[in-house]
From TrEMBL:
Species, as recorded: Durio zibethinus (Durian)
Keywords, ordered alphabetically: Plant defense
Superkingdom of source: Eukaryota
Gene Ontology molecular function terms on file: ADP binding
Cell membrane keyword on record: no
Protein name, UniProt field: Disease resistance protein At4g27190-like
Keyword Signal: no
One Pfam family from the record: NB-ARC
InterPro entries hit by this protein: Apaf_helical, NB-ARC, P-loop_NTPase
Residue ranges of domain NB-ARC in the record: 5-72
Annotated GO biological process: defense response
Amino acid sequence: MLACKGKHVLILDDLWDKLSPEEVGIPEPSNGSKLLVTTRLLDVCHYLDCREVRVPTLSKPDAWRLFLAKIGQDVFNHLDLLPFVKSVAEECAGLPLAIVTIASSMKGARNLHEWRNALHELKRHVKSVNVIEEKVFQQLQFSY
C-alpha cells in the first residue's frame, strides 16, 4: 500500500532490536518518502543504515522544572519531602518519558514513606542486556 501512495513519512518509534523493513512490508523510500526511526541503540541505526541524530537528555535544571510541573509546586509546602523528591527526580536521569511518568505517578503523594519507598524502588537493580535498557526499564517498571 505504501509503495502505491504518494510521498509519506513512516515513523517507527522506540525500536529495541534490528528490523528488516522489507520483511515487514515497508518498501525502501524511492518517491521522496521518509522512514524515521527512534531508538536508544546505535546498533539499530547502523543496521538500518540510518543517518544518526543524537537527542541529549534534559539538563538538570530543565529536568527539575519538568518534574515540578508534573508533580505540583505544593510539594514545597512539605520541606521534609524535598530531599526525597529531588533524589527521585535525579533518578530519572534527564529522560523526559521517565520524568513525566514517574512524576505523574507520584503526584499528590505527600507521605514521607511513599517518597522513601519510591526512591528505594528506583535504585533497585534490574537485570538487563545493557546499561541503557536497564535504566529505562527500571524507571518505567517503577511507574507501573
